[in-house]
Design goal:
Largest sheet: 7 strands, mixed
Number of helices: 12
CATH architecture of the largest domain: 3-Layer(aba) Sandwich
Number of domains: 2
Structural class: alpha/beta
Strand content: 5-15%
Shape: globular
Number of strands: 13
CATH topology of the largest domain: Aspartate Aminotransferase, domain 2
CATH superfamily of the largest domain: Type I PLP-dependent aspartate aminotransferase-like (Major domain)
CATH class of the largest domain: Alpha Beta
Radius of gyration: 21 Å
């Protein structure tokens, strides 16, 4: 199988991730629940992962790194911390349902800063027009549908100038596109552990400011057990219940692999694969590619449409030829509406550090084969 659905989850992972999960299942219990060896080993592993993530994303203190079950979990914490019914919230035109549905559920007054695909200057201007009077803003770092890298730095600067807290959804950028949490000055940044960070499913990370974070779940933390309220300090305030220690151990192994490989190297590799794949299809009038004119505006995710073929049918035919991709709306109808692809959807190819030139060549040949 040629796996090109890394925007959904990273199926291919460093061997160290599998080993770390298996080892944790055999040797680690729960952190903060005892002073015996297996509990202390778990506590050390969880702390080591916080430190590694704080270093990767330029977070001042590792306590500001909170473990969640997914990016969706983290985004729910962030949105519920900042937004109430009727609050005006500005979002980009490329948000995932993890943002859109959560804001809708809160009852927010959602304003979409819509702008054309791969036009970062237009995105900044759209936010500039809508931000005055907003209670909060949300912006995805990279579109999960198109790989479009939004101008988060410039949007964050607008938010800081107006004192508006910003939530960054780094789900598609973490592990390849850099993110400096302190420099951005955002209130929260959420990401999954199982995509670009190469950890297991069931892991997520929320980077947060001390003053903004409010609990979404309540329960035991192993600290301040006599009081009825959740502990006032991070990360305990947001980490009720037992940690997913095997997941965190696997995530730590993935982050350490990225530290050795470097995120810029991963991004360069994925962009090279995307360019090679797209170049093989660019001359065929039956293929519509959603590709940035400036390669720096796009990460390793490429959507396309095929003439005369429903996108779901195209993905099924590709799967018959051993190519795994995702088709449809990708849980992001807002992005498709903004880009004008809502009715048909797209077929999405997303690349990983472990894909090869040969795989992209075979995948492009499979696309041409189903068209023929």
């Amino acid at each position: 199988m040629i796996y090109l659905d890394c925007a959904a989850t990273s199926l291919q992972k460093p061997a160290a991730v599998r080993y770390a999960v298996a080892e944790a299942l055999q040797s680690m219990s729960s952190p903060g629940r005892g002073g015996y060896a297996s509990a202390m080993l778990a506590a050390d592993t969880v702390l080591d992962c916080r430190i590694a993530l704080a270093d990767m994303f330029c977070v001042r203190r590792p306590e500001q790194v909170v473990f969640t079950s997914s990016a969706t979990h983290g985004l729910n914490i962030a949105i519920h911390s900042l937004v109430g019914p009727g609050d005006r919230v500005v979002v980009s035109g490329y948000e995932h349902n993890a943002v859109w549905r959560t804001l809708h559920g809160v009852g927010a007054d959602i304003k979409v800063a819509a702008s054309p695909l791969f036009q970062p200057l237009a995105a900044v201007e759209a936010f500039r027009r809508l931000l005055p009077g907003a209670k909060a803003a949300v912006c995805t770092q990279v579109s999960n549908v198109f790989g479009y890298i939004l101008p988060v730095k410039e949007i964050a600067a607008l938010c800081r100038a107006q004192g508006i807290p910003l939530i960054v959804d780094a789900s598609q950028g973490a592990g390849s596109v850099g993110l400096d949490f302190e420099a951005l000055g955002c209130a929260f940044a959420a990401m999954p552990g199982h995509k670009g960070l190469l950890g297991p499913q069931g892991t997520g990370v929320l980077l947060c400011r001390e003053e903004d974070a409010r609990p979404l779940f309540y329960g035991g933390t192993g600290s301040m057990s006599r009081q009825a309220a959740m502990p006032a300090f991070l990360p305990d305030r947001l980490e009720a219940g037992t940690h997913n220690v095997p997941g965190v151990a696997g995530l730590l192994a993935g982050v350490r692999w990225l530290h050795r490989t470097t995120c810029p190297a991963v991004l360069a590799h994925e962009r090279k694969l995307l360019a090679d794949f797209a170049d093989r299809l660019a001359g065929d009038g039956r293929v519509r590619l959603f590709r940035a004119a400036d390669p720096s505006d796009q990460a390793g995710v490429l959507s396309l449409q095929l003439e005369g073929l429903d996108c779901e049918e195209a993905a099924f035919r590709l799967s018959e030829r051993g190519v795994a991709v995702r088709a449809g709306l990708h849980c992001a109808p807002l992005a498709h509406d903004t880009a004008g692809t809502l009715e048909q959807g797209t077929v999405r190819f997303s690349f990983s550090p472990f894909n090869t030139d040969r795989e992209t060549a075979l995948a492009a040949a499979a696309v041409l084969d189903i068209l023929d």
